[in-house]
């Protein structure tokens, strides 16, 4: 490149005498050119600057347009660009980045070769696009990177996976893992969303510790991640890595003074064994992950063809469930709560059942969890209430006009004011809200939801009772229980089964009984199925009320027009001890909910 001689770019094109008027116009022109907001330069075939205004001087790192004795990297690059473009005789547009200390600017520069007065010159103009580039980068990151964790989004990993699938018959193997944080909603509810977000960031850090440059981790939704492991040699290699990763995630997280434990369920699909497209691989990894969820959580499972058949069966149940709600094919059964001293009926619990296409009654274990997951549980709860209101005369005639009527509400519903407020209004509209007992699991109280502060006062005002269902298998937080103002506690059946043979369960039962008595709550023992269980409760505890198959099977509405179970203590007291009529399993509670 030619030497950079001291050269006045403002005067190089001006030679010879000028008339005073022309000089005045030229001075105006010079000042206008110098103060243009866009950087403008004119260079000759040797790259020397013939003209340069102040904006261009600042961009190229020159003190002033008239002083070009010190050269910056940008200055030298512009000289080289002029030589190259003028030799090629072509125009060009390019982005130029300039960094001065901590400040970075981006310019869009257009170069155009021109011929003036038999001279080949390069005319260049630059516009500052720093803010525009920053906005474009922000839009790009919003579209392709997660704001909270900084991880690539779904579309990025999808593009990456698809790019790894060649059309030849000898593709490289890779694994796609679907990760879901277990019980993340409970963590959010209990600790708050800020802590939940911080937990996601910490989990992201742990997941990314041993990833290779060819691997990728993506956050695809709130608590769901996709991990690409590429390349892989065998399924055993992937299993070993994921097992190590899960062990790392089991260590506690310390966030804002709280020690938080968070397990993760992982489903894995392999390419090409489990699919030859991103959508198929992701779907199969998702299916495998749900197998983990259904089998206890916190582990990893590889996809197999049997899972696909299970998923198809689940989809069939989902479709039939939606259709059953439209066709109102759900029915109510009632199970009595009995005073174990007098055998009088103290209340009834409404249980929802599904009548399938062939008229067979389905227990709730086949549909309740799915109804919660699909957001259909609200419709089911209102259907149960409607059936109760429609049949209240039969209920009164069979069980007595003073018996309480219990309705189960899932924890997800209990913490949702958008459901609970209309539900409270529906209870009030029945005209007898004081007869209802709303049963919720203990996590509705312990988790930081709206139930305790906003919903509970509404029910208290209506006279609706509150029951803690399945007590002992959820959070069981004694500090939280002290703040609960429920009317009754229903001890889960797992503590009652064979209570006469289990000293440890007996001790727990006595503790719950004493605590409930201190807090003024009635205790209900669930799942009484044998005379021995009943005899122990009568002899060794102060518990007055229980329910279970020993007293009565669930009774359906259509059966109420037939002779029902006696409601007086005299007739019921003469019923002898008898074996269980039906195993409890058929009507077991599915993961904490019974309808």
Automatic annotation (TrEMBL):
SMART domains: EAL, GGDEF. Residues 172-305 form the GGDEF domain. SUPFAM superfamilies: EAL domain-like, Nucleotide cyclase, PYP-like sensor domain (PAS domain). PROSITE patterns: EAL, GGDEF. Residues 314-568 form the EAL domain. It comes from the Bacteria. InterPro entries: Biofilm_reg_signaling, EAL_dom, EAL_sf, GGDEF_dom, Nucleotide_cyclase, PAS, PAS-like_dom_sf, Rev_trsase/Diguanyl_cyclase. Residues 1-21, 570-595 are annotated as: Disordered. PANTHER family: BIOFILM ARCHITECTURE MAINTENANCE PROTEIN MBAA, DIGUANYLATE CYCLASE DGCP. This is Diguanylate cyclase/phosphodiesterase.
């Amino acid at each position: 490149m030619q030497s950079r001689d001291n050269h006045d770019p403002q005067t190089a094109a001006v030679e010879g005498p000028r008339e005073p008027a022309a000089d005045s116009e030229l001075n105006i022109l010079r000042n206008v050119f110098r103060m243009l907001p866009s950087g403008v330069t004119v260079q000759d075939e040797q790259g020397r600057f013939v003209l340069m205004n102040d904006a261009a001087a600042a961009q190229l790192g020159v003190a002033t347009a008239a002083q070009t004795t010190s050269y910056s990297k940008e200055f030298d690059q512009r000289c080289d660009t002029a030589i190259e473009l003028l030799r090629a005789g072509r125009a060009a547009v390019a982005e130029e980045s300039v960094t001065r200390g901590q400040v970075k600017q981006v310019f869009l520069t257009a170069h155009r070769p021109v011929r003036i007065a038999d001279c080949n010159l390069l005319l260049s103009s630059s516009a500052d696009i720093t803010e525009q580039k920053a906005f474009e980068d922000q839009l790009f990151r919003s579209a392709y990177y997660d704001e909270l964790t900084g991880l690539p989004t779904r579309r990025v990993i999808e593009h990456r996976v698809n790019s790894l699938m060649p059309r030849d018959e000898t593709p490289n193997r890779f694994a796609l893992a679907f990760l879901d944080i277990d019980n993340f909603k409970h963590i959010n509810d209990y600790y708050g969303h800020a802590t939940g977000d911080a937990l996601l960031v910490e989990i992201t850090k742990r997941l990314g510790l041993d990833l290779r440059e060819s691997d990728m981790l993506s956050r695809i939704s709130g608590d769901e991640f996709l991990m690409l492991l590429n390349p892989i040699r065998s399924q055993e290699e992937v299993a070993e890595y994921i097992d190590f990763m899960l062990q790392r995630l089991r260590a506690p997280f310390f966030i804002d003074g709280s020690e938080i434990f968070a397990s993760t369920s992982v489903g894995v699909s392999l390419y090409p064994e489990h699919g030859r497209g991103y959508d198929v691989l992701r779907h199969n990894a998702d299916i495998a992950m749900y197998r983990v969820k259904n089998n206890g959580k916190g582990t990893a499972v590889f996809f197999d063809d049997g899972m696909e058949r299970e998923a198809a069966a689940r989809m069939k149940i989902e479709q039939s469930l939606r259709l059953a709600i439209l066709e109102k094919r759900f029915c109510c059964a009632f199970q009595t709560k009995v005073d174990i001293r007098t055998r009088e009926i103290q209340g009834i619990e409404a249980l929802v059942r599904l009548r399938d296409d062939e008229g067979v009654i389905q227990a709730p274990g086949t549909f309740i969890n799915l109804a919660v997951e699909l957001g259909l549980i609200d419709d089911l709860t209102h259907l149960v209430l409607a059936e109760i209101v429609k049949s209240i005369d039969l209920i009164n005639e069979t069980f007595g006009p003073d018996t309480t009527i219990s309705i189960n509400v899932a924890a997800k519903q209990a913490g949702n004011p958008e459901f609970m407020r209309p539900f409270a209004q529906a209870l009030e509209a029945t005209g007898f809200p004081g007869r209802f007992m709303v049963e919720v699991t203990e996590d509705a109280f312990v988790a930081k939801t709206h139930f305790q502060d906003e919903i509970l006062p509404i029910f208290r005002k209506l006279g609706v009772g509150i029951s803690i269902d399945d007590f002992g298998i959820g959070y069981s937080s004694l500090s939280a229980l002290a703040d609960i103002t429920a009317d009754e506690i229903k001890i889960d059946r797992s503590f009652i089964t064979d209570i006469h043979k289990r000293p440890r369960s007996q001790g727990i039962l006595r503790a719950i009984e004493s605590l409930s008595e201190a807090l003024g709550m009635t205790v209900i023992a669930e799942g009484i199925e044998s005379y021995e269980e009943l005899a122990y409760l009568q002899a060794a505890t102060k518990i007055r009320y229980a329910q279970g198959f020993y007293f009565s099977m669930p009774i359906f509405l259509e059966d109420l027009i037939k002779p029902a179970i006696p409601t007086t203590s005299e007739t019921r007291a003469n019923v002898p001890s008898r074996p269980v009529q039906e195993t409890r399993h058929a009507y077991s509670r599915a993961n904490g909910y019974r309808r």
